[in-house]
Amino acid sequence: MFKRILFIAMGALCLFTVTGCGNNSDTGKLSCTKTSTDEDGYEVTDTMNVTYENNKVTTVENINISETDANYIDMTISFGNTFASALNEINGFNATYSKEDDTHVKYVVTVDYTKLDTEALKNVFGDNFDAESFYSSKDITIDEFKEQNLKDYTCK
């Protein structure tokens, strides 16, 4: 009797392992980071936190920490917050700028694709609207998102 129960249990375990039952791989979270140097020699760290459900990207949080000249940091924050306030009027879009320290600016953009109003986004960006950018790719699979936006990133 014990062998039969063990045999059934092992069979079920093998079935779950082979078919993936209990492990929904088309839903999850992905965190990817890239560090680079800009044209002025300053370090830029960019992190993308991507949430997807049923293989479709639902939200993206992009955290960018950029090194900058201490003489321009306050002006950068001021300009960034002015621009962010216009973007924050768009349903499904949130942007913030903050000062990390005397030489680093933190820029966070969160996009909720389930709520994003792409027409309003086009109006705010005008001629600078980029249909290929992560923030405007409303109906995109996780694989398409990786291919289009995360090529140079290290993901976990």
Structure characteristics:
31% helix; YehR-like fold; 6-stranded antiparallel beta sheet; alpha+beta
What is the H level of CATH, i.e. the homologous superfamily? YehR-like
- How many beta-strand segments? 6
Helix % is 25-40%
Tally of DSSP helical segments = 4
Shape, per Cα inertia axes: globular
Write the H/E string, N to C: HEEEHEEHHE
Number of domains: 1
Distance between the ends: 44 Å
User: What's the CATH topology name?
Assistant: YehR-like fold
Characterization of this structure:
With 156 residues, this protein is α+β, with helices and mostly antiparallel strands. It has a single domain (24-155), classed as YehR-like (YehR-like fold), CATH 3.30.1830.10. Helix content is 31%, strand content 34%. It has four helices and six strands. It has helices spanning 2-19, 73-87, 118-125, 142-149, and strands spanning 28-37, 43-53, 56-67, 93-101, 104-112, 154-155. A hairpin with a 2-residue loop joins strand 2 (43-53) and strand 3. The longest helix is centred in the N-terminal third of the chain and has 18 residues, at 2-19. The chain starts with a helix and ends with a strand. Residues 1-24 have low confidence and may be disordered.
